[in-house]
Amino acid sequence: MAKVSVAGQPSILFTHHSRTTLTTLLLCAAVLSGPACAKPPAAARLTIWHWMTDRDEAFQALARRYTQETGLPVRFELYAPSELYSQKIRGAAQTDTLPDIFGVLGESRDFASLVKAGFIAELTPAMEAQDAAWRSRFFPKALEMNSFTAGNASGVAPGIYGVPIDVTTIQLVYNKRLFERAGLDADRFPRTWEAWLEAGRRLKAAGITGFVSGWGETWLLDCFASNYAWNLMGREKVLATLRGEVPYTDPDWIRVLALFKELRDAGFLYDGLVTMVNKRAEQVFANEGAAVAFNGSWCVNVYHGMNPSLEYGVALPPQLSDEHPMVIWGGAGSSFMVNARTPRRAEAIHFLQWLTDLPQQRFLVEATRNLPSTRAAAETIPPALVPFATAVDRAVHPSLLPVQEAPAVVEAWGKGIQSILTGEQTPEQVARAVQEVKERELARQRGLARQPRS
After folding, report:
1. Is 214 domain-assigned?
2. Cα-flanking dihedrals φ and ψ of residue 198, to 5°?
C-alpha cells in the first residue's frame, strides 16, 4: 500500500411517460417506507450506464451480489472515455432510450436540463422517508451536488435528484523520496506560495521536474485558479465577479493569472503540461517523473494500480494570502440518477438504497480506494484517504454557487491561462480578453431578459 501522510493538516424535450405495473407500484410503497424495505419482485433487468473504468470490476461484483440476494438481474454497462459517455447520454436523451440508472457528466446546466426535460426522477420522498433514514446516511456536501434548492438559477423544482456513491477533494500530492533527494522536508509541504516556488527551484537544481498536472483539461486549470481567487479575494468578491459587478481586469484577478506566469518562469513545470490530459499526468507522477501533482482523491486508487510502492504526501495548495482561507474543489465524486421514465423506477431506487448501504459502501472503499459518500463507511477508510477526507469541510464547487459563470467566459479563462503558460500572452492581456467575453455575455443576457415572453 502507498505510504501517505498529511502535510500542514491534522493526523432534451420529450413528454411521454411509461406506464407502471401494479407490482412496481406496490414496491414503490415499500421503497418509500425506508431503506430496509422488502426485496423487489422479479423484473426483466436493471441496466446502469457508467464511465468509471477503475470501478467497473467492483460494480460487476456488486451486481452479482445483488442478483443473488434479490433475484433481480443487474447489468452495469461501461462507456469510456468520459467524452464518449457524455455523447451517449445526449444521444439517448434525444431518442428517449436512457437506461434505468445513469450518471451525468458535465456542468450543472447539463444536469438541470435533463431534470427539467423529465429524464431524471426526484428522489426526495424516498430520501426523507422514515425520518430521513436514507438521506441521513450521506455527508451533506455529497448530497448538495445532487440537489437543487429553492430559487436556484436553473429553475429546477427544489429536491434531491441524484445518489452520490463517493466524494472527492482535489489537492496537491508530492513525492516524498524526490523531496528528500532535493534536501526538502518530506513530511511538510511548503505552506506559502513563495516557499513553494523556492522548493520548485531546489527540485530543479537537483535535476527533478517540480510539477505536473493534466492542464490540457481546462477544468483542472479553472479549479487551481479558483482556489487562489477565493484565497486572495474571498467568496463575496468572487460572486460579485460572476454577477458582473467586478471585472476580470481587477488587480486581484490579474494577480491570480500572474501565478501561472510565476510557475512558468520558475522553470519547474513538466514539458507539455499545457496539452497533457490528466491520465497522462497521473502516469508521470506515479512513475516518479515529477515531484508534485495537482489531483483529486481518486488518485489514491490510480497511483496504487500504477506504482504500489509510491511514497507520497498530500497537502492543501500553499496559501497566497492569510486574509481568507484556502478552499478546494470537492463534493460528490460520482453519482447515479434514476430515469424518471423507466417502468422500473421503484426497483432502481431500491437498488441505489442497497448500493449506498454500509456493506456495499465498505466494499467500494476497499475495492476502489475512493472516499465513501456515507458517514458510517468513512469511519474505516484506509490511511491513504485520510488527508483527502479531512479536507472535505474546505470543499466548494462552482455548481453549488448561487450564480454560475457563462460557459464562454469559463472557456476563455481556461484557454487564456494556457496561453500564459506557453508565453503567448501576459496576465493583463488575458484579463482584458476574458472581460471582453464577459461583457458580451452580460449584454446577451440583458437582451434576452428584455425580450417579451411568448
Report:
1. yes
2. -65, -40
Q: How far apart are CA 246 and CA 280, in angstroms?
A: 37
Mean pLDDT value of segment 261-278: 95
Count H helices and E strands in the chain, helices first.
Answer: 19, 15
Residue range(s) defining the domain that contains residue 178: 169-328+403-447
Residue (of 223, 217, 213) closest to 170 by Cα position: 223
pTM of the model: 0.77
Our count of domains for the chain comes to 2
Q: What CATH number is associated with residue 88?
A: 3.40.190.10
Residue with cell 455523447: 87
To the nearest 5 percent, what fractions of the chain are helix, strand and coil?
50, 15, 35
In the predicted model, what is the mean pLDDT of residues 371-386?
A: 89
Cell of 187: 513530511
**CA dist., res. 158 & res. 148, Å (int):** 5
Cell digits of residue 202: 531546489
CB atoms within 10 A of CB 402: 11
Distance CA 441, CA 453 (A): 20
* Alpha-carbon span 192 to 1, nearest angstrom: 30
The length of the chain, given as a count of residues: 454
Q: pLDDT of 84-104, one tens digit each?
A: 999 999 999 999 999 999 999
Cell numbers describing residue 255: 494577480
Give, as one character, the DSSP assignment of residue 15: -
